[in-house]
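Example for tutorial group B:
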């Protein structure tokens, strides 16, 4: 499968598994899992075709590890980034002392005033390294990398979760924990 086709299927899966499963009439379970065969059948009705091998290739080669299979590969879900209400059944964990958030320069004044909000998503996404945060920030314009004092947040009783693809998740980041 070529890179263009892989990207097309990945974008389609993001739409369906993270935001709008109803687009193809798919029901996700409470933890965001979809039956692989049902996903393939309902996608085909919308003229989006992929084999099990192609789906496996998309999951394995996605550089952000956006999707995951269950152990026997009969179910698939997005690892994080949902705008629909699902329970990823993640265990609260102690984060490193510092994590990073990449954003566009245009958002800085609002963030420093109001904090980092989850908006339409279930969580705020934080990166373990500056390089990943920079890539995230570049998607929205000139990137600015914010350092988040997550160790202090955790001491103050704020919960953190680690998604299957290594993204740290939390509900909200108050401006007092943010530095440029």
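The residue assignment follows.
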């Amino acid at each position: 499968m070529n890179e263009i086709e892989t990207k097309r299927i990945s974008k389609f899966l993001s739409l369906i598994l993270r935001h709008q499963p109803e687009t193809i009439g798919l029901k996700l379970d409470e933890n965001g899992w979809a039956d692989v065969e049902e996903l393939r059948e309902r996608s085909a009705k919308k003229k989006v075709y992929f084999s099990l091998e192609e789906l496996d290739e998309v999951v394995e080669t996605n550089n952000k590890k956006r999707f995951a299979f269950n152990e026997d590969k009969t179910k698939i879900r997005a690892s994080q980034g949902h705008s629909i209400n699902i329970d990823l059944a993640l265990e609260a964990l102690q984060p490193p002392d510092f994590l990073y958030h990449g954003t566009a320069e245009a958002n800085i004044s609002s963030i420093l005033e109001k904090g980092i909000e989850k908006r339409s998503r279930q969580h705020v996404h934080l990166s373990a390294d500056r390089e990943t945060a920079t890539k995230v920030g570049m998607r929205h314009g000139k990137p600015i990398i914010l350092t988040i004092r997550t160790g202090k947040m955790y001491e103050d009783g704020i919960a953190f979760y680690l998604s299957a693809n290594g993204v740290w998740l939390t509900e909200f980041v108050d401006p007092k924990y943010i530095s440029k």
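Residues 3-19 form the longest helix (17 residues). Compare this with the pattern of hydrophobic and polar residues in the output above.
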